[in-house]
Amino acid sequence: MSADPAVTQIVQSLPAWRRAVLKVGSSLLAADGGGLSPRFALGLAQFVSASQAAGREVVIVSSGAVAAGRAILPKVDEAGAAIAARQALAALGQAQMIGLWQRFFERPVAQVLLTHDDLRNRRRYLNARATLNELLALGALPVVNENDTVSVDELKLGDNDNLAAIVAALIDAEVLFIATDIDGLYDANPRTNPLARLVPEVVELTPEVFAMAGGSGSAVGTGGMRTKLEAASKAGAAGIDTVLFNGRRSEVLRGLAHDRLEGTRIRAARSRIAARKYWLRHAPLEPGAILVDAGAAAAIAQKGASLLPGGIAGAEGDFRRGDMVEVLLRDAGGEQRVARGISQYSAVDVRRIARRHSREIEAILGYNYGGNVIHRDDLVLM
């Protein structure tokens, strides 16, 4: 792919940062014929080393485990393979992927595998945060990946672009670097349209900007650009800028080490959501919902109130205490998503205490986790 040289030579300053997440995709690590190659990983590692030498901290979110596993057992057909086969490839390849990164650094490289449940469960989310912070304090280089060995399709986080955005918010990073195999965001597909122009800066992620990346199955979305914009949206909600750049160009990587960007900078939203509220907004939901009446919906939306049993009309699904669920208002006008939050009671318990007073909870259930079904500190409006 060739891009317009006059456009790709636009250089801008990086945002100030002390801590960052670097996401590296399989296209930069996979070798021709299978396995992993150090060809592009070396330049990325040099950028990380230069950043660390300047007193900065970096966490890598790296793909490549399945590609590495496929080289070990090439007879396994990953395309259309059973979930167990893909998980086996990931398990075989994880050590190879970590070994690739370790070869470039004198400091220890630490493997951190995250799952859907680690980010849905508040306690485990905070444990992951504490682990990453401690690894950084110890001078290690954390390399994060989704734990494909135990994840199943219906519980997967999805892709490493969005995982990187979640990790960036998890560790309070100032910038999310996404290394790809093209120079950044273009206003058209640069592989098919010679007039495509690089977009050096995005101030706001509007529908028009997303349209540049095409749909998830569109040829315009080459390189998964839409998921990168989705990740930038998540990062931006936490006050984190996203930088897209070509990880195959050594001169671009050298420029990044000196805070010069040739690529696309996607600026964060002006207002920063508090860390807890951010997690509440983006953590995966448990199937199910709590149904409320109009009075409870208004109290939550307009007064910042907690959700009490008296305003609950019912519950759907089979969620448990501590799960993240939606709060829905369903009436003659249709269905409205009011909020999402952590339920202090299971779906079975919510059904039993619906329309009752908080002081009756213990008499009905035989125990009491508090008078709020969802406390206002555990709620975020939708």
UniProtKB/TrEMBL annotation:
Keywords: Amino-acid biosynthesis, ATP-binding, Cytoplasm, Kinase, Nucleotide-binding, Proline biosynthesis, Transferase
EC numbers, comma separated: 2.7.2.11
Short name of any one Pfam family annotated for the protein: PUA
Record's subcellular location: Cytoplasm
Top-level lineage group: Bacteria
Recorded metabolic or biological pathway in which this protein acts: Amino-acid biosynthesis; L-proline biosynthesis; L-glutamate 5-semialdehyde from L-glutamate: step 1/2
CDD domains the record matches: AAK_G5K_ProB, PUA_G5K
Function: Catalyzes the transfer of a phosphate group to glutamate to form L-glutamate 5-phosphate.
Protein name: Glutamate 5-kinase
Organism: Pseudoxanthomonas daejeonensis
